[in-house]
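re: that chain from earlier
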Amino acid sequence: MATVLCSRPISWRLPGNKNAMLNFALLLTYNKRTTCFPGRSNIIMISVILPVYNEAAHIATVLDCLAASQVPNLEVIVVDDASTDDTAQICSRYSVTLLRRPENGGPARCRNAGAAASHGELLLFLDADIQFDPELLPRIMTHLDAHPHLAGALTLTAPEPLNPSFAGRFVALQDYLRYTHICAQGHRSWSYITTRFGLLKREVFEEVGGFNESLRAAAYEDLEFCARMSERHQLALDPDWLVRHHFPDTLWKMLRRLHVNARGVMSFPRAMRRKVSAPFTRDRNARILLALSWLLGACGFFAPPLWIGAALCQLGALRQVWWLPRGFYRHEGLLFAVKGWLVYNATLVPFATGVARGVADTVRRRVI
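^ sequence. v structure.
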């Protein structure tokens, strides 16, 4: 990692601190930890793009995490998507640029607006309801210093969510186990960005064309963006880069989100669908086996020997995604592992209905 003294003023964010001695000490710390890409004479600027909508309960946490990160030349742009709570008032207490939109337009439009107003060579996309270690961003920047060919970095969901409900724990742990399994297979870069905490070079963002603003809901706009991004743009992936997140706190909300995502992905062209689903082939195989298991189980009421086939399909699905129940057991115990596997079975319903609605939408557009 190259270490230099900054040749231009360093901006730092320490909300509410007026102690000049502490600020001076922090400035010395920044100078010691300043990073730049090899061959650069100046510190690169990072622009944080943070869309918010009625996030008064969470926004202070993520802004405090940014303030504690001690990263120089950090510009924070908060795009308020016409919030009706105290989100804007809370943001005004921090050293951020606050953009207030007159009407709600969705996170894709907010991210594009924030990127357009930013000045950094790197764009850091964040969700408002996350929490992360202050050392996370410096560690990522150190990695990018050593690997300048990478287009950015993506992070993983921590196994412990910020909301402790069963649904939140299930989603967080499932995401964590899925991506750590990908890392364990030797994948340390991916043409994909997680917008809950994802770092991307501005030139790549502009080449892709930004987020699709016709996708108003906070659902699959990041998948659609990644599907358009060229495979030559690889983002660093490390199992130790973890972010805690708020997830749906009920199973109904979780299943509804899965339905929306499945329906949206079916609207992608085939090549784009293939790209976003490529790392999850075994996951797909497991769901096919589970669907066959339930079909054989239902038919077993008329022909009981089919129940043997249903059980074998369940075992086949377990073999495809063995890392999931094993991880449930290691992190949360036997009872959670059993409940988690049953919920994994239940996710077949929103996937199936989402795919069916997506196919119907595609047919309808072609006919019209």
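Residues 280-367 form one domain.
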